[in-house]
Write a structure and sequence with these properties.
It is a single chain. By secondary structure, the chain is α/β, with parallel strands linked by helices. Helix content is 33%, strand content 26%. It has a six-stranded mixed sheet, with helices on both faces. Strand 21, helix 16 and strand 22 form a beta-alpha-beta unit. It is globular. The two termini are 44 Å apart. The model has no long low-confidence stretch (mean pLDDT 86).
């Protein structure tokens, strides 16, 4: 029996910042169905979801919910109609507690004699968190004190709860925009369990992800968007990664994904070395050598210490024991600017918080880390900033109206490309790539992999914290494995002899 139509979007267009982001796209979601939505960065996926949730209006086109016209003025109106969303860049208010965020806008449900009963708010929040297997999160904790992955689970709990608040007999639509980008494998599977619970009750889900294997695992049908238009719509039984890739980028894959043919053998010269380095309570006895022209991958679960090691190397944190040597001399950085003077720069994991200035232009963001290289007698010339930006926009295929576009006008993946351009433009010798392809589409990932190969071919060195284990193995010359703050193994990863994921996982868990 055919499932009942829950939501439809017909011929939706959207123009802003001088760009037509959507050019007449369609989307249908039936009750009890998971619809996957894939496409390159700038394809229009997030734009459509923001229209559905009421963040911004469409330029033209119509939407329906339960067979009735649907045009929410804001997210609260969408929530009342049974539509909830987990945003790609997260929407929690960080200076409020977990419980306050879960019931934000619904405090009246806990009022008595004009006062909010916060004990009941936190008691109910604990129940909501336990329902999505997140009972370990204290609802009284401020969001700012949570890591990115835990915040994402709070977002998910908040939206799942929305489906049960005032909609007992009404089927809801849940929009998930890159919900797994900061989750580990166990958390992803936990999320998929919750999604299946929702669809079993007749709710509909739109699942957006750049991880095609995840889309194929959880979806019933898949829409493909390209350049703001529908490029395909297929049932899961007909879908493969190869078909999705071809529809997304408009071409078949012509080279190996990780460009293994371009993997070079590193030089003997050691450009960075840690000697018995430690950070109290985080990691200890860390001995790492990075060679010139090498990509060194570090694998480990959240909390293994890999992120903090990189933070020490780039000057964000100071070690409490051991030594750090760069280019043959011992160093003791107290800030990232000192590390940059020695040619060390990191592409951060949290793009919006650490990687970009949203109110500045594309050109200004690319120039942030290399102003001295663009100056003449202490004066930075705008023409040099503009010329540099135009070159990187073309090289990385950054989708933007131009160098003077504000960063906030770019899609998430294109913002990541700008961050990558800034690191390369700095002419740093040692680049730390902390999840460089997070939130980046398949086509853009392949371009970043190729560019990384070019960088090491020029003699630069890279420390890579991959977005996936497969990425870390595929790109690296050597892989170090960490668990609970200790290095538990090391693997050579030559182009023809890559270690298996199983052998690495056994040392991570």
């Amino acid at each position: 029996m055919e499932k009942k139509l829950l939501f439809s979007a017909n011929n939706i267009t959207k123009s802003f910042y001088g760009t037509q982001a959507l050019k007449g796209v369609d989307l249908e979601v039936h009750e009890g169905e998971v619809v996957g939505l894939v496409g390159e960065n700038g394809a229009g996926k997030s734009t459509l979801l923001k229209i559905i949730i009421g963040v911004q209006p469409q330029t033209s086109g119509e939407m329906t919910m339960h067979g009735k016209p649907f045009m929410p003025e804001d997210p609260m109106a969408a929530n009342k109609a049974g539509v909830g969303m987990v945003f790609q860049e997260q929407s929690l208010i960080v200076n409020l507690s977990v419980g306050q965020n879960i019931f934000f806008g619904h405090e009246k449900d806990f009022k008595h004699l004009g006062f909010v009963n916060w004990s009941k708010v936190y008691e109910e929040s604990k129940r909501v968190l336990e329902e999505v297997n997140c009972g370990y999160i204290n609802p009284r904790t401020k969001v700012i004190d949570l890591n990115f992955a835990t915040r994402q689970m709070v977002e998910i709990a908040k939206v799942v709860n929305m489906t049960k608040s005032g909609h007992d007999n009404q089927k809801c639509l849940i929009l998930l925009d890159e919900p797994t980008s900061v989750l580990n494998e166990a958390e992803v599977q936990n999320l998929f369990t919750e999604i299946r619970k929702l669809t079993a009750k007749g709710h509909g889900v739109v699942f957006v992800s750049h991880h095609l294997d995840e889309v194929l695992e959880i979806s019933d049908r898949i829409y493909v968007y390209k350049d703001g238009e529908n490029a395909g719509n297929m049932d899961i039984k007909d879908a493969t990664e190869e078909k999705l890739y071809a529809a997304m980028v408009g071409r078949e894959t012509t080279t190996e994904y990780y460009h293994l043919a371009q993997q070079r053998k590193p030089d003997e010269e050691i450009v960075l070395e840690t000697k018995d380095m430690g950070l109290s309570g985080v990691f200890k006895h860390c001995n790492i050598k990075l060679h010139k022209g090498e990509i060194l991958g570090i694998c480990g679960v959240v909390g293994s210490g890999k992120e903090e090691i990189c933070s020490v190397v780039c000057g964000d944190l100071k070690p409490t024991s051991g030594e750090l040597h760069v280019k043959g001399r011992r160093v003791n950085y107290s800030s990232p600017s000192q590390a940059l003077q020695d040619g060390i720069l990191m592409i951060p994991m949290e793009r919006h918080a650490e990687g970009i200035v949203r109110s500045m232009t594309v050109a200004e963001n690319i120039a942030l880390s290399n102003a001295p290289l663009l100056s003449e007698r202490g004066i930075v010339r705008k023409k040099k900033i503009d010329d540099q930006a135009n070159a990187w926009i073309q090289k990385l295929r950054i989708k933007t109206t131009g160098k003077d576009a504000e960063m906030m006008s770019l899609s998430g993946g294109n913002q990541q490309k700008v961050v990558f351009a800034r690191a390369l433009a700095s002419e740093a010798d040692i680049i730390i790539l902390n999840h460089p392809t997070r939130g980046v589409d398949v086509g853009a990932k392949e371009e970043i992999y190729a560019l990384t190969r070019e960088v090491v071919a020029q003699g630069k060195s890279v420390i890579l914290l991959g977005d996936t284990m497969d990425e870390c193995i595929g790109m690296s010359n050597r892989v170090i494995v960490m668990k609970d703050g200790l290095i538990t193994g090391e693997f050579q990863a030559d182009a023809g002899e890559k270690p298996s994921q199983v052998s690495i996982v056994t040392l991570m868990m």
